[in-house]
Amino acid sequence: xxxxxxxxxxxxxxxxxxxNSCNDIDLESTPYDSVAVVDGIQNLSSATAxxxxxxxxxxxxxxxxxxxxxxxxxxxxNILVSPxxxxxxxxxxxxxxxxxxxxxxxxxxxxxxxxNAANTxxxxxxxxxxxxxxxxNEINGHAYAMRGMAHFDLVRTYAFPYSTTDASxxxxxxxxxxHLGVPLLVAYGQERHAPRATVxxxxxxxxxxxxxxxxxxxxxxxxxxxxxxxxxxxxxxxRVYLYKEDxxxxxxxxxxVINSGNYSLASNATYMNNWDGLMETDVILQLPAASNDNxxxxxxxxxxxxxxxxxxxxxxxxxxxxxxxxxxxxxxxxSNWFRSISGVSFNFKFPNAWTxxxxxxxxxxVYLNLAEAAAMGGGSMTDGQKALDMVRQTADPSVAATTxxxxxxxxxxxxxxxxxxxxxxxxxxxxxxxxxxxxxxQLASPSTIATITYPDYRMVWPLxxxxxxxxxxxxxxxxxx
Length: 481
Prior knowledge:
two-stranded antiparallel ribbon, mainly alpha, 10 strands
């Protein structure tokens, strides 16, 4: 019998999680069998610490700390690897990722750590006797939100999108999520029987989890927008619906967030200031960073700049392609993201090498979700036009209001998503869900792959080989691997 690779991660209360802990917390520091998990979550303090542990995992380099922000950019057309580099992200850039690669395995394991930790909270939160109903609801709401987000990140990384129809790259693809996705873990201890669920089943669970989280979480935003609130989950749900191509619900959910009044776009005058350290406007969910609490050289900004505005050094491995930088007019404030140093253009969207906040969800994305959904017939075309204009004219007030509808509006939204959300971890996911090809006009070397024609099996990652080898319920990897 195979040994199960999807590990059981028990949150053992304050034994392994402390409030306001550093970002390198290890939820496996105490073996599962050595302490009774039921003793770990017993009161409000330990339950709150366990929730903090969930968010702490997001900072890891092999999750949102860097990998899932950088890979969708470097594997698409926004980034090329500098000829002078440290060897990082070469496989992702060259489309030579293997099931045995450390990144493939580490992202998988970190995501399932969050899922199993969330399941542990949901299973044992009933032990908490000193919490009010509202406090207990919030604890469970965070667990549902994080479980939903982790399953979503897994299914969009390790499986083709919901509407895929080409069974040559995704066995069972029928346009309705009939192909295999990822193991779906929704109960404490369930990892002992974890076959791959269909993409449809995974999306159903994601939506159920996020909907439950919305009903439990408070309306008020968390301090520094560092945790989910009701509106933050709705913002994520608008993204999920967009990926599923449920344009009506994508429109409605995005509209709810916009009309909540909880968030506002940065002004043109303050737009660039918003990227210097902690984001204070436009951000819905972020990972704050501090001078004494960061990933150091493995931080997000470090991979893009060799000398950061915070005085710290970086790798400067990944530089923007000329076709992304050329999309911005000189009147567009976002053109200031690019700085030429010794003849090399660097991406300074994250200007601090070590101490940038990492934006996970921004209001501008929600506006663009609404605009895309409207262009696809999911809601008012007028509202979609206004949403696109809000984003474009914030960055460049000289841009005229749009009158485009339908396919033309959609094309404009696609361009604006690339411009506004550049380097934030959206690009490859967008290209693949739009069923488009990756076309690179600037290459790092003559051997660089210039075009990846959709649907290329390499547009999604393989499952980790050790998971395939150890899990009795998984017999085959993704097509091509």
